[in-house]
Design goal:
There is one protein chain. The protein has 370 residues and is mainly α. The protein folds into two domains: 171 residues, no CATH class; 184 residues, no CATH class. It has 17 helices and no strands. Helix 4 crosses helix 5, helix 5 packs across helix 6 and helix 14 runs antiparallel to helix 15. The N and C termini lie far apart (64 Å).
Protein backbone atom coordinates (compact mmCIF):
# COMPACT_ATOMS: atom_id res chain seq x y z
CA UNK A 1 0.00 0.00 0.00
CA UNK A 2 1.46 3.43 -0.89
CA UNK A 3 2.47 5.80 1.87
CA UNK A 4 -0.64 7.70 2.95
CA UNK A 5 0.61 9.60 5.96
CA UNK A 6 0.21 12.97 4.27
CA UNK A 7 -3.50 12.44 3.61
CA UNK A 8 -6.21 13.67 6.00
CA UNK A 9 -7.26 10.97 8.46
CA UNK A 10 -10.67 10.46 6.86
CA UNK A 11 -9.12 9.92 3.45
CA UNK A 12 -6.58 7.47 4.85
CA UNK A 13 -9.34 5.34 6.36
CA UNK A 14 -11.36 5.56 3.15
CA UNK A 15 -8.42 4.43 1.02
CA UNK A 16 -7.87 1.47 3.35
CA UNK A 17 -11.57 0.62 3.03
CA UNK A 18 -11.29 0.80 -0.76
CA UNK A 19 -8.38 -1.65 -0.68
CA UNK A 20 -10.48 -4.04 1.43
CA UNK A 21 -13.31 -3.70 -1.09
CA UNK A 22 -10.94 -4.69 -3.90
CA UNK A 23 -9.82 -7.67 -1.81
CA UNK A 24 -13.46 -8.65 -1.36
CA UNK A 25 -13.94 -8.60 -5.13
CA UNK A 26 -10.89 -10.82 -5.62
CA UNK A 27 -12.05 -13.29 -2.97
CA UNK A 28 -15.44 -13.56 -4.67
CA UNK A 29 -13.80 -14.31 -8.02
CA UNK A 30 -11.76 -17.04 -6.30
CA UNK A 31 -14.86 -18.51 -4.68
CA UNK A 32 -13.68 -17.66 -1.15
CA UNK A 33 -16.99 -16.37 0.17
CA UNK A 34 -16.07 -16.42 3.85
CA UNK A 35 -12.95 -14.29 3.27
CA UNK A 36 -15.04 -11.99 1.07
CA UNK A 37 -17.51 -11.54 3.95
CA UNK A 38 -14.66 -10.77 6.36
CA UNK A 39 -13.34 -8.14 3.94
CA UNK A 40 -16.82 -6.61 3.61
CA UNK A 41 -17.02 -6.33 7.41
CA UNK A 42 -13.63 -4.60 7.41
CA UNK A 43 -14.93 -2.15 4.79
CA UNK A 44 -17.75 -1.26 7.18
CA UNK A 45 -15.33 -0.69 10.07
CA UNK A 46 -12.97 1.49 8.06
CA UNK A 47 -15.79 3.54 6.54
CA UNK A 48 -17.17 4.17 10.03
CA UNK A 49 -13.73 5.42 11.06
CA UNK A 50 -13.53 7.61 7.95
CA UNK A 51 -16.90 9.18 8.70
CA UNK A 52 -16.08 9.67 12.38
CA UNK A 53 -13.07 11.72 11.20
CA UNK A 54 -15.14 13.70 8.69
CA UNK A 55 -18.87 13.50 8.02
CA UNK A 56 -18.26 15.29 4.72
CA UNK A 57 -16.57 12.26 3.17
CA UNK A 58 -19.25 11.41 0.63
CA UNK A 59 -17.21 8.58 -0.87
CA UNK A 60 -17.27 6.78 2.49
CA UNK A 61 -21.09 6.94 2.67
CA UNK A 62 -21.35 5.34 -0.75
CA UNK A 63 -18.81 2.60 -0.03
CA UNK A 64 -20.34 1.83 3.38
CA UNK A 65 -23.82 1.48 1.87
CA UNK A 66 -22.41 -0.64 -0.97
CA UNK A 67 -20.73 -3.02 1.50
CA UNK A 68 -23.94 -3.40 3.53
CA UNK A 69 -26.23 -3.87 0.54
CA UNK A 70 -23.88 -6.37 -1.13
CA UNK A 71 -23.58 -8.30 2.15
CA UNK A 72 -27.37 -8.51 2.41
CA UNK A 73 -27.49 -10.43 -0.90
CA UNK A 74 -24.43 -12.59 -0.14
CA UNK A 75 -24.56 -15.99 1.53
CA UNK A 76 -28.14 -16.97 2.33
CA UNK A 77 -29.53 -13.67 1.00
CA UNK A 78 -33.31 -13.49 1.25
CA UNK A 79 -33.54 -17.04 2.64
CA UNK A 80 -32.40 -15.59 5.99
CA UNK A 81 -35.00 -12.79 6.36
CA UNK A 82 -33.68 -11.42 9.64
CA UNK A 83 -30.13 -11.03 8.34
CA UNK A 84 -31.26 -9.76 4.95
CA UNK A 85 -33.62 -7.11 6.33
CA UNK A 86 -31.13 -6.03 9.03
CA UNK A 87 -28.39 -5.31 6.49
CA UNK A 88 -30.74 -4.00 3.82
CA UNK A 89 -32.36 -1.47 6.17
CA UNK A 90 -28.97 -0.16 7.27
CA UNK A 91 -27.69 0.12 3.71
CA UNK A 92 -30.85 2.03 2.79
CA UNK A 93 -30.41 4.32 5.82
CA UNK A 94 -26.85 5.24 4.81
CA UNK A 95 -27.42 5.73 1.09
CA UNK A 96 -30.59 7.74 1.73
CA UNK A 97 -28.72 9.92 4.22
CA UNK A 98 -26.07 10.53 1.56
CA UNK A 99 -28.74 11.15 -1.09
CA UNK A 100 -30.35 13.73 1.21
CA UNK A 101 -27.15 15.78 1.57
CA UNK A 102 -27.64 19.21 -0.04
CA UNK A 103 -24.22 18.98 -1.76
CA UNK A 104 -23.61 15.29 -2.27
CA UNK A 105 -21.59 15.81 -5.46
CA UNK A 106 -18.02 17.00 -6.03
CA UNK A 107 -15.91 17.79 -4.00
CA UNK A 108 -17.68 15.83 -1.23
CA UNK A 109 -18.12 12.80 -3.48
CA UNK A 110 -15.97 12.03 -6.50
CA UNK A 111 -17.90 11.91 -9.76
CA UNK A 112 -17.51 8.14 -10.25
CA UNK A 113 -18.68 7.42 -6.69
CA UNK A 114 -21.55 9.84 -7.07
CA UNK A 115 -22.80 7.86 -10.06
CA UNK A 116 -22.45 4.63 -8.06
CA UNK A 117 -24.28 6.19 -5.13
CA UNK A 118 -27.19 7.36 -7.24
CA UNK A 119 -27.54 3.91 -8.82
CA UNK A 120 -27.43 2.35 -5.37
CA UNK A 121 -30.12 4.71 -4.11
CA UNK A 122 -32.38 3.61 -6.96
CA UNK A 123 -31.62 -0.08 -6.24
CA UNK A 124 -32.38 0.49 -2.55
CA UNK A 125 -35.75 2.10 -3.34
CA UNK A 126 -36.73 -0.77 -5.63
CA UNK A 127 -35.48 -3.45 -3.25
CA UNK A 128 -37.17 -1.94 -0.20
CA UNK A 129 -40.44 -1.67 -2.09
CA UNK A 130 -40.23 -5.25 -3.32
CA UNK A 131 -39.04 -6.93 -0.12
CA UNK A 132 -41.55 -5.07 2.07
CA UNK A 133 -44.38 -5.53 -0.48
CA UNK A 134 -45.05 -1.78 -0.48
CA UNK A 135 -47.74 -0.40 -2.70
CA UNK A 136 -45.78 2.43 -4.36
CA UNK A 137 -42.38 4.05 -4.77
CA UNK A 138 -43.60 6.88 -2.56
CA UNK A 139 -44.20 4.39 0.27
CA UNK A 140 -40.70 2.94 -0.21
CA UNK A 141 -39.10 6.39 -0.02
CA UNK A 142 -41.15 7.21 3.08
CA UNK A 143 -39.83 4.04 4.70
CA UNK A 144 -36.28 5.01 3.71
CA UNK A 145 -36.89 8.38 5.36
CA UNK A 146 -37.63 6.54 8.59
CA UNK A 147 -34.53 4.36 8.19
CA UNK A 148 -32.41 7.48 7.70
CA UNK A 149 -33.91 9.15 10.77
CA UNK A 150 -33.80 6.13 13.11
CA UNK A 151 -30.89 3.97 11.92
CA UNK A 152 -28.30 6.06 10.06
CA UNK A 153 -26.62 7.59 13.10
CA UNK A 154 -26.26 4.17 14.67
CA UNK A 155 -24.80 2.64 11.50
CA UNK A 156 -22.20 5.40 11.24
CA UNK A 157 -21.16 4.87 14.86
CA UNK A 158 -18.36 2.43 15.64
CA UNK A 159 -20.47 1.20 18.57
CA UNK A 160 -22.69 -0.65 16.07
CA UNK A 161 -19.85 -2.46 14.32
CA UNK A 162 -19.96 -5.64 16.39
CA UNK A 163 -23.66 -6.17 15.63
CA UNK A 164 -23.20 -5.44 11.93
CA UNK A 165 -20.14 -7.65 11.67
CA UNK A 166 -22.04 -10.46 13.38
CA UNK A 167 -24.83 -10.25 10.80
CA UNK A 168 -22.42 -10.15 7.85
CA UNK A 169 -20.45 -13.17 9.09
CA UNK A 170 -23.22 -15.27 10.58
CA UNK A 171 -23.91 -17.13 7.34
CA UNK A 172 -20.33 -18.41 7.43
CA UNK A 173 -19.78 -18.78 11.18
CA UNK A 174 -22.56 -21.36 11.57
CA UNK A 175 -24.18 -23.67 9.02
CA UNK A 176 -27.94 -23.48 8.59
CA UNK A 177 -28.51 -26.65 10.60
CA UNK A 178 -26.71 -25.06 13.53
CA UNK A 179 -28.59 -21.79 13.14
CA UNK A 180 -31.82 -23.67 13.60
CA UNK A 181 -30.54 -24.80 17.00
CA UNK A 182 -29.72 -21.33 18.26
CA UNK A 183 -31.08 -20.79 21.78
CA UNK A 184 -34.12 -18.70 22.46
CA UNK A 185 -33.21 -15.25 23.77
CA UNK A 186 -34.61 -16.15 27.18
CA UNK A 187 -31.93 -18.84 27.43
CA UNK A 188 -29.29 -16.10 27.57
CA UNK A 189 -30.72 -14.89 30.88
CA UNK A 190 -28.89 -15.84 34.09
CA UNK A 191 -29.83 -19.48 34.87
CA UNK A 192 -31.58 -18.67 38.15
CA UNK A 193 -33.72 -15.99 36.49
CA UNK A 194 -34.58 -18.29 33.62
CA UNK A 195 -35.54 -21.08 36.02
CA UNK A 196 -37.79 -18.66 37.88
CA UNK A 197 -39.56 -17.60 34.68
CA UNK A 198 -39.91 -21.14 33.33
CA UNK A 199 -40.87 -23.11 36.39
CA UNK A 200 -42.70 -20.64 38.58
CA UNK A 201 -44.05 -17.65 36.70
CA UNK A 202 -45.39 -19.32 33.56
CA UNK A 203 -47.16 -22.12 35.44
CA UNK A 204 -48.76 -19.76 37.92
CA UNK A 205 -49.77 -16.87 35.68
CA UNK A 206 -50.80 -18.79 32.57
CA UNK A 207 -52.47 -21.99 33.83
CA UNK A 208 -55.12 -21.79 31.12
CA UNK A 209 -52.59 -21.37 28.31
CA UNK A 210 -52.01 -25.12 28.39
CA UNK A 211 -50.64 -25.58 24.88
CA UNK A 212 -48.36 -22.56 25.01
CA UNK A 213 -47.39 -23.43 28.58
CA UNK A 214 -46.30 -26.96 27.68
CA UNK A 215 -44.21 -25.79 24.74
CA UNK A 216 -42.68 -22.97 26.75
CA UNK A 217 -41.58 -25.06 29.69
CA UNK A 218 -40.52 -27.98 27.49
CA UNK A 219 -38.04 -25.67 25.78
CA UNK A 220 -36.38 -24.97 29.12
CA UNK A 221 -36.43 -28.35 30.87
CA UNK A 222 -32.69 -28.43 31.46
CA UNK A 223 -32.77 -25.34 33.68
CA UNK A 224 -32.51 -26.26 37.40
CA UNK A 225 -35.50 -25.31 39.54
CA UNK A 226 -33.60 -23.29 42.11
CA UNK A 227 -35.87 -20.32 42.71
CA UNK A 228 -39.19 -20.53 44.46
CA UNK A 229 -39.49 -17.27 46.44
CA UNK A 230 -41.86 -14.62 45.06
CA UNK A 231 -39.38 -11.90 46.04
CA UNK A 232 -37.05 -13.13 43.30
CA UNK A 233 -39.53 -11.67 40.83
CA UNK A 234 -37.90 -8.31 41.49
CA UNK A 235 -34.55 -9.62 40.30
CA UNK A 236 -36.13 -11.15 37.22
CA UNK A 237 -37.94 -7.90 36.49
CA UNK A 238 -34.70 -5.93 36.73
CA UNK A 239 -32.97 -8.30 34.30
CA UNK A 240 -35.85 -8.17 31.83
CA UNK A 241 -35.89 -4.36 32.00
CA UNK A 242 -32.16 -4.33 31.26
CA UNK A 243 -32.69 -6.56 28.22
CA UNK A 244 -35.53 -4.33 27.07
CA UNK A 245 -33.31 -1.25 27.24
CA UNK A 246 -30.57 -3.04 25.29
CA UNK A 247 -33.03 -4.15 22.61
CA UNK A 248 -34.34 -0.60 22.19
CA UNK A 249 -30.80 0.80 22.11
CA UNK A 250 -30.01 -1.52 19.19
CA UNK A 251 -33.39 -0.87 17.52
CA UNK A 252 -34.31 -4.55 17.87
CA UNK A 253 -38.03 -3.91 18.14
CA UNK A 254 -39.14 -7.51 17.79
CA UNK A 255 -37.03 -8.48 20.80
CA UNK A 256 -38.35 -5.44 22.66
CA UNK A 257 -41.94 -6.64 22.22
CA UNK A 258 -40.91 -9.98 23.71
CA UNK A 259 -39.35 -8.38 26.78
CA UNK A 260 -42.40 -6.12 27.26
CA UNK A 261 -44.52 -9.29 27.20
CA UNK A 262 -42.34 -10.76 29.93
CA UNK A 263 -42.75 -7.60 32.02
CA UNK A 264 -46.53 -7.99 31.79
CA UNK A 265 -46.32 -11.65 32.80
CA UNK A 266 -44.10 -10.74 35.76
CA UNK A 267 -46.53 -7.98 36.74
CA UNK A 268 -49.38 -10.48 36.78
CA UNK A 269 -47.25 -12.88 38.81
CA UNK A 270 -46.40 -10.31 41.48
CA UNK A 271 -50.07 -9.59 42.08
CA UNK A 272 -51.04 -13.25 42.17
CA UNK A 273 -48.29 -14.55 44.47
CA UNK A 274 -48.61 -12.08 47.35
CA UNK A 275 -51.44 -13.12 49.68
CA UNK A 276 -52.19 -9.52 50.70
CA UNK A 277 -52.92 -8.53 47.14
CA UNK A 278 -55.96 -9.71 45.19
CA UNK A 279 -55.36 -11.62 42.00
CA UNK A 280 -54.91 -9.13 39.20
CA UNK A 281 -56.68 -9.78 35.91
CA UNK A 282 -54.59 -9.15 32.82
CA UNK A 283 -56.93 -6.34 31.73
CA UNK A 284 -55.84 -4.33 34.78
CA UNK A 285 -52.22 -4.48 33.56
CA UNK A 286 -53.15 -3.61 30.01
CA UNK A 287 -53.05 0.18 30.11
CA UNK A 288 -49.67 0.32 31.80
CA UNK A 289 -48.23 -2.22 29.39
CA UNK A 290 -49.44 -0.27 26.38
CA UNK A 291 -47.58 2.75 27.65
CA UNK A 292 -44.44 0.63 27.41
CA UNK A 293 -45.46 -0.84 24.08
CA UNK A 294 -46.58 2.24 22.18
CA UNK A 295 -43.17 3.93 21.75
CA UNK A 296 -41.73 0.57 20.65
CA UNK A 297 -44.51 0.11 18.13
CA UNK A 298 -44.13 3.65 16.76
CA UNK A 299 -40.40 3.17 16.19
CA UNK A 300 -40.90 -0.32 14.75
CA UNK A 301 -43.45 1.02 12.28
CA UNK A 302 -41.16 3.87 11.24
CA UNK A 303 -38.29 1.41 10.76
CA UNK A 304 -40.47 -1.02 8.77
CA UNK A 305 -40.05 -3.81 11.34
CA UNK A 306 -43.41 -5.41 10.60
CA UNK A 307 -42.66 -8.59 12.54
CA UNK A 308 -42.48 -6.44 15.68
CA UNK A 309 -45.68 -4.61 14.75
CA UNK A 310 -47.54 -7.91 14.21
CA UNK A 311 -46.31 -9.30 17.53
CA UNK A 312 -47.39 -6.09 19.23
CA UNK A 313 -50.86 -6.64 17.75
CA UNK A 314 -50.80 -10.19 19.12
CA UNK A 315 -49.93 -8.90 22.59
CA UNK A 316 -52.86 -6.49 22.44
CA UNK A 317 -55.10 -9.38 21.38
CA UNK A 318 -53.98 -11.34 24.44
CA UNK A 319 -54.60 -8.34 26.71
CA UNK A 320 -58.04 -7.74 25.25
CA UNK A 321 -57.14 -4.32 23.80
CA UNK A 322 -59.13 -4.49 20.59
CA UNK A 323 -58.64 -0.85 19.59
CA UNK A 324 -54.87 -1.10 19.93
CA UNK A 325 -54.84 -4.42 18.10
CA UNK A 326 -56.72 -2.91 15.17
CA UNK A 327 -54.41 0.09 15.08
CA UNK A 328 -51.31 -2.10 14.95
CA UNK A 329 -52.74 -4.52 12.40
CA UNK A 330 -54.10 -1.68 10.32
CA UNK A 331 -50.67 -0.08 10.01
CA UNK A 332 -49.18 -3.39 8.79
CA UNK A 333 -52.00 -4.05 6.35
CA UNK A 334 -51.74 -0.53 4.95
CA UNK A 335 -48.09 -1.02 4.04
CA UNK A 336 -48.03 -4.76 3.26
CA UNK A 337 -50.03 -6.92 0.92
CA UNK A 338 -52.19 -9.53 2.67
CA UNK A 339 -49.95 -12.32 1.36
CA UNK A 340 -46.90 -10.59 2.81
CA UNK A 341 -48.60 -10.41 6.21
CA UNK A 342 -49.40 -14.13 6.01
CA UNK A 343 -45.79 -14.96 5.09
CA UNK A 344 -44.48 -13.01 8.05
CA UNK A 345 -46.90 -14.71 10.42
CA UNK A 346 -45.80 -18.09 9.11
CA UNK A 347 -42.13 -17.18 9.50
CA UNK A 348 -42.70 -16.07 13.11
CA UNK A 349 -44.36 -19.42 13.80
CA UNK A 350 -41.57 -21.43 12.18
CA UNK A 351 -38.65 -19.35 13.45
CA UNK A 352 -39.50 -17.91 16.88
CA UNK A 353 -36.69 -15.92 18.45
CA UNK A 354 -38.12 -16.00 21.97
CA UNK A 355 -40.03 -18.63 23.87
CA UNK A 356 -42.75 -16.11 24.67
CA UNK A 357 -43.39 -15.67 20.94
CA UNK A 358 -45.08 -19.09 21.03
CA UNK A 359 -47.77 -17.57 23.24
CA UNK A 360 -48.04 -14.44 21.10
CA UNK A 361 -48.28 -16.38 17.85
CA UNK A 362 -51.47 -18.13 18.94
CA UNK A 363 -53.08 -14.77 19.55
CA UNK A 364 -51.65 -13.35 16.34
CA UNK A 365 -53.44 -16.04 14.37
CA UNK A 366 -56.63 -15.25 16.26
CA UNK A 367 -56.37 -11.51 15.64
CA UNK A 368 -55.91 -12.02 11.89
CA UNK A 369 -59.06 -14.10 11.73
CA UNK A 370 -61.22 -11.39 13.23
Amino acid sequence: MPFLGWLPKSERFFNQASEQWRRRQRFLLQGEEERAAEAAAEVVRLCQLALSASQRNGDAYVLLANALLSASFAGPGRSDPQRYEFLQARAAAVIHLWYSLPHRGYPITKSANRAIGERMWRIAVDEIGHSRSLSSERAAIALMDSYRDTLAASVLSQASFQDIEGMILRAHSAPESHMEQQPFLEETLPPEVLAFLATVVIKRVLPNESEANDKTTDALTDIPQVLKEPERALRAEGEVLRRLREALHHSDFRQAVGWVTWLIILDLYKYSCFPDEPARPRETSAEGSVQLLRPTWVEARRAGDWDAVLLAAALCEWLGLSDWREEFLGSARTQLAEQAVARRVQDIEQNPQMVVERLLHRHLRGSLER
